[in-house]
Every structure is written in structure tokens, then in C-alpha cells.
Specification:
- Strands 1-2-7 form a three-stranded mixed β-sheet.
- 39% of the residues are buried.
- It is globular, with a radius of gyration of 24 Å.
- The chain has one domain (53-473): Cytochrome p450 (Orthogonal Bundle).
- It contains 18 helices and seven strands.
- The chain has helices at residues 4-28, 53-64, 83-92, 104-110, 120-136, 144-161, 170-185, 195-212, 214-221, 223-226, 235-256, 266-276, 287-318, 320-333, 349-362, 396-400, 438-442, 445-464, and strands at residues 67-72, 75-81, 99-100, 371-372, 377-379, 382-384, 391-395.
- Helix 6 packs parallel to helix 18 (445-464) and helix 13 packs parallel to helix 18 (445-464).
- Bound molecules: protoporphyrin IX containing FE.
- Protoporphyrin IX containing FE is lined by residues 115-116, 127, 181, 296-297, 300-301, 304-305, 308, 364-365, 368-369, 432-434, 438, 441, 445, 448-449.
- The chain crosses the membrane at residues 6-24.
- InterPro entries: Cyt_P450, Cyt_P450_E_grp-I, Cyt_P450_E_grp-I_CYP2A-like, Cyt_P450_sf, Cytochrome_P450_fam2.
- Keywords: Endoplasmic reticulum, Heme, Iron, Membrane, Metal-binding, Microsome, Monooxygenase, Oxidoreductase, Transmembrane, Transmembrane helix.
Amino acid sequence: MDFSGALNIVLVLVASCLLFLLACRKKKFKNLPPGPTPLPFIGNMHQVDVKELIKSLRELSGTYGPMYTFHLGSRPCVVLSGYKVLKEALIDKAEEFSGRGDFPAVQMWSNGNGIVYGTGERWRSLRRFAISTLKNFGMGKRSLEERIKEEAQFLMAEFRKTQGKPFDPTFFLSCAGSNIICTLVFGDRFEYTDKKFLTLLDLINSNWKLMSSTWGQLLFTFPKIMRHVPGPHRLIYKNYLKLAEFVRERIEMNRETLDSNHMRDFIDCFLIKLQQEKNNPDSHFSEETMSKTTVNLFFAGTETVSSTLRYGLRILLRHPEVEEKLHEEIDRVIGPNRSPCMEDRSRMPYTDAVLHEIQRYADIVPMGVPHTVTRDIEFRGYTLPKVPDLNIIPLLCTSQFDPTQFKNPNSFDPTHFLDENGRFRKNDALMAFSAGNGQIETSIRPRLVVVGLGCVWPSARSVFFAERFSADSVK
Ligand code: HEM
């Protein structure tokens, strides 16, 4: 029997389908910025080091400029690099660039729900609600500031136990960073020895590590396939389920003791919101949304803050001349007998500049999160269509290290945030929390981080450099 005729027909059919798909794709993405030539299926992955994806993307911008197309597997991504283009996109066209792109590690579990990976109107309402709720916790007797000061004391107690001997503060900083979010979200902090708390920290830590591992990068690049391939990356999903189970228990505890006249935490506020919205068939607020958003806040707020603190301490240890000046200001404005507070900030330009410079230099979310456009737009002469498979990758690190915005981008230099008279000077190229739309919630986030840093440092520093201060002088 001669199969060659049938084989030819199959080949012609396959080739026609491929050509048809290519033609459709060309039509959909008819005017994207140029970039390296992709191969079928793997895209441009053969041109980068998967373990050093960010470094490779930065290098490609050296060849293709501030805006180029990179194929992550078969999905095209428009990579934005450098302050100017990031500002034009994230600030000047904030609404258009506010769509959420692919982040499979989070999406596998969140399924389009929750504040971090929600979309459309639901995401917008959730965001408004979260921002105003968290802002309200910024005030009053149990304000965020008070909670942070309190946590700083617990942290210091742990540091003091080491009696000025060298030690690794990582664990304690994670506990402290996380506890600040815990008091906001769950109304209370945990002891640093609490088994449940430690399990939660392990789950969060494990997910961050998995996301940045080669398996995590493969999941990011080939989500459709990697979802079905066995491997450590699948633990990300399981860890999220465990976090969600803990949150579910806390929600039940809150529900049983809920008092609308005395809101203790974010969960209480959400439960009340659910009651208010129960007769609204179009409500964006549901039990599932509450659980996912709570996990999101807990997850997003834990590792980020503690990593910033850890980097900060490390940077200061390497820059004794900065640390010296910082401490002179702390001694002069705050003195040894009280905790720092937000009001001190305006009188401490050098400390403020150091905190900002740490956020720039530590650069803990260098690639931001992938975005999409919310409508078809013309941008810098190219057409970016509103389709789910076109990701926008804001390389935030390229703004934070942009030589046109910072005179010494690769060095740790607090004068990046000081004017010639030593006054604090803002610099919009600092995009640690992203920019534009992201700035709405930064009204709470820097406060949290900055006060956290401010509270911890004066005390922590004294312990680290115990030879200059007796432990009794540290409040
Ligand atoms: C130094 C600490 C932090 C850094 C560097 C950081 C950085 C970021 C970045 C780069 C994004 C992506 C923004 C975007 O592209 O739209 C983000 C999103 C987010 N972060 Fe943080 N973050 C920090 C602390 C926190 C804290 C303490 C919380 C919780 C209170 C938090 C909650 C969130 C949420 C909910 C989102 C999603 C926001 C949205 O979809 O609009 N982050 N963060």
C-alpha cells in the first residue's frame, strides 16, 4: 500500500494550518516594536540565560533600545526599559497600561480573583476598597505606626539576646515584617516561636524561592505545558492552598466575633462589606474574593518588607560612612530615649534619603509584574493591541539604575535623593513599587515601609554596633 500520497496531504494540511496561524498572528500583532528573531515554540529563550533572565533582558535593550519585542516561548512581550519610556507608559498612560499580564505562578491559584491578579472592574473596586481600608488603619490609636513601633520593640528584644555578637538577622526580620502585615490583616501579631506562624513564613518563603528558580522561570515561559509537567514548581499552587486554608480559619474566627462598631482588621472590614453588598447581584465582593485578597496582601507584604530591611542593614554595614551620618542625624533629632515616629521624618532628610536609596539599590522587584494594555493603543509609533497574549514587561530596575536619572546609578549614594542644600529631593525614577496607577496604593506602602525602616534602624543599628551604645540606651 502506498502511503506517500496521504502523507503529502497531511503535510500540506499542517503547513497550511501553520501558515494560516502565522497570518492571523501577523494581523493581530501587525506593528510591534522590533526585537530579536524568535524561533517557533521557544521564542527568544535560546538567546537568554534562563537563570539570569533580567540581566539578559537588560542587555537586549542595549541592542534593541528602550522598547522591543521579546518572545517568551510563543507569547510576544513588549519590554520597556529606562525611566523615560516607563514613565510614558506607567505614569502618562497609566490607565492604558494598567491591565494584568501573565503571571502563571500566581494565576494558577488565583484564577483571576483577588487583588493582585484580578482583572477589570472587579480588580478596580477591590483595589479602591483595599486602599481605603488600609489607609484607615493608618490612623487612630492602633494605627499602623503604633503597630510598627510595637513590632520594632519585639524585634529589638530578639536582637538584644545576641548580646552584640555577630548573628544573621534574616529570620527575625521576616517575622517582624510579616507581623506588621498580620496585625493589619488578622488584627494581631504572632510570637516568633508560634508554630503556625513559622509554617506560614516557610510557605511564603518557599514560594518566592520557587518562583525565582529555573522551574519557576520555565513555568513563567511555558505556562500551558508546565502546568501539566511534574516538578517542584507545582508546589507553588499547593503552598497557596495551605495559605488559603489558614486564612479561611482566621475568617471563621473573625466572623464569630464580628462587631461592626469595632473593626479590628482587614478581614472584619471585608466581612462588613460582604454584608453591605449581599443584595447586590453585580457585587464584586464574595467569600472567595475575600480569601484570595487576604492571602494576596499577606503574601505581597511579607517578603518584600523583610527583604528590604535585610538589604538595608547589609548595605549600611558595607557603608560605614553613610551609617555614621545617619546615626548622627538620628541622635540629633530623635535622641536615645524614644522611638522614632512619622513626624520626625520631615526633620531627617538624610535618613529619608538613605531609606529611598536603599529601596532603589536593593531593587527587590526588578521586573515589576507583567502588564497588558486595557485598549488598543498607539505608543511611540507602534500598535499595542488589547489581547491577553501580549504582555508588557516593565523592567523597573532599568529606571532605578538609569544613568540619565541618577549620577552614580551603580553605587549606593544617598545624595541621589538630596539637593545641594542637603534637603530631601524626590526622584520619580525610583520605581520600587512600580509607578502611575501603582502610586495610588503607594500612599500606604511607603509609609509602612519607611516607618518600619525608620523604627527598626535606630535601634537595630545600636545593637549591631554595640561598642558605641549600651543596650540600655536603646529604646
Ligand atoms: C518594600 C516593599 C514592597 C515593594 C518593593 C513592593 C513592590 C511591588 C510592585 C513592584 C508591585 C507591582 C505593581 C504593578 O506593577 O502594578 C506590587 C504590587 C502589589 N503590592 Fe507591593 N511592594 C511592597 C510592599 C507591599 C506591602 C507591605 C503590601 C501590603 C500591604 C503590598 C501589597 C501589594 C499589592 C496588593 C499589590 C498589587 C497591587 C495592584 O494590583 O494594584 N506590597 N508591589
